[in-house]
Design a protein that fits this description.
CATH class: Alpha Beta
Oligomer: single chain
Number of domains: 1
Length: about 220
């Protein structure tokens, strides 16, 4: 994404939010299994939400419906800055960091905020992929924050899938759209590197299964 003109880049987060509010607001919207998030919040627990990069737009749009405010990790890049500003428009707090630039420090900061009662959010396959390959930072942050991971995926009956590394989904106006919450996944506080890798693989499989379910979501059976 080469959006370098400074005026356009300043305006783009506002334009993106206007577009998202207009398109998603025209859709018939549902949530599935949000009780998983609400019940944990009612028990005094924060959760760590994660989704694939290609489905982040509608997930951002639904932040205000969560039981608690959310803090996110974004990459320290031009595109990461754009994503951060859009997320902030929906009430998120954002810390910047990547594998090679302050990522570990950012994860510790997010864990500290989550321990104060905020939900956390992290893109499962990161800012550069590979597509649908879950990054180690997800399970690391779950361990450090003590929060269960809630996989999230989006189902839409009318959308375009772009030819980008993340298979970014553009939901069309007047679609039926569902935000689908998976079941909580717990990472032990004493998990070593081997246990973190086992957890990463297991969580990756759960998120892939949830994504596959959403790709064939049976709207006609329920709505």
């Amino acid at each position: 994404m080469k959006l370098r003109h400074p005026v356009f880049r300043r305006l783009l987060p506002t334009l993106a939010k206007v577009w998202m509010d207009g398109v998603f607001g025209s859709c018939r919207q549902f949530t599935v299994n949000q009780e998983a998030e609400q019940n944990l919040a009612a028990q005094g627990r924060s959760v760590l939400l994660t989704c694939w990069h290609g489905q982040l737009a509608y997930t951002f749009y639904k932040f205000p419906s969560l039981a608690r405010p959310i803090v996110l990790l974004a990459s320290p890049s031009r595109d990461g800055d754009l994503i951060s500003r859009v997320a902030e428009g929906y009430g998120a707090q954002v810390f910047s960091g990547s594998r090679n630039k302050g990522g570990l420090a950012a994860l510790y900061k997010i864990a500290a905020v989550m321990q104060q009662g905020w939900h956390g959010g992290i893109i499962a396959d990161g800012s550069r992929g590979p597509c649908h390959h879950l990054k180690k930072g997800v399970v690391f942050l779950a361990r450090e924050s003590g929060a269960p991971v809630l996989p999230v995926a989006v189902a839409a009956d009318r959308k375009l899938v772009l030819n980008t590394w993340d298979r970014f989904e553009v939901i069309l106006p007047f679609s039926r759209v569902a935000l689908v919450f998976g079941e909580p996944f717990f990472v032990p506080p004493d998990a070593n590197l081997k246990a973190l890798e086992e957890g990463r693989r297991h969580l990756e499989a759960k998120l892939r299964d949830l994504y596959a379910f959403c790709q064939q979501y049976p709207f006609s059976m329920y709505y």
